[in-house]
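ok so heres the complex, two chains, lmk if somethin looks off
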Amino acid sequence: EAGVTQSPTHLIKTRGQQVTLRCSPISGHTSVYWYQQALGLGLQFLLWYDEGEERNRGNFPPRFSGRQFPNYSSELNVNALELEDSALYLCASSLANYGYTFGSGTRLTVV
Amino acid sequence: TQLLEQSPQFLSIQEGENLTVYCNSSSVFSSLQWYRQEPGEGPVLLVTVVTGGEVKKLKRLTFQFGDARKDSSLHITAAQPGDTGLYLCAGANNDMRFGAGTRLTVKP
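and the predicted structre for the whole thing:
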């Protein structure tokens, strides 16, 4: 069984640009979660999608947005990139809130 | 401010030593998970605890959930270099919130 897959693995963008990150959950998992892991700050909750709907949102500005598709895959979009957006972006999926399976993440560097 | 506070932040020990790391919060959680993360990878789930006072053992790792379901501890017996990594606790209610982690280094 394939795990959670994320693409791309690495990305370099210029300040002010826009980026789209992608996540495919484990087959059968309907919930997808996005986290930002900046250096030394732990995992910060970004977004939770379930059955195509946004269920909850962390304390991030509106330029962080996303969506979930009918096949439960998900995209995270970040507009007007800032230097402090440089981080590892992790996607996780679950069936219920008993534990997440994470992807390996997308390392975003904003220069 | 982190919802979950983990301590210590860093821990460096010799192979064979025992250690305990802590995860504390003022919030009550429906469940709590522990994860281990290695560089360049996503966190991997170690255990889920649900009931207050619950103790779970996974080989040399012992996990305990506080009676009030606000805190947890992870005890490792006879640590090995393979235990090196970032240990994260996460509390679940409507979603999952993570602590900043304990970075453990076990030296041979």
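quick notes: Chain A has a mean pLDDT of 93. thats all i got rn
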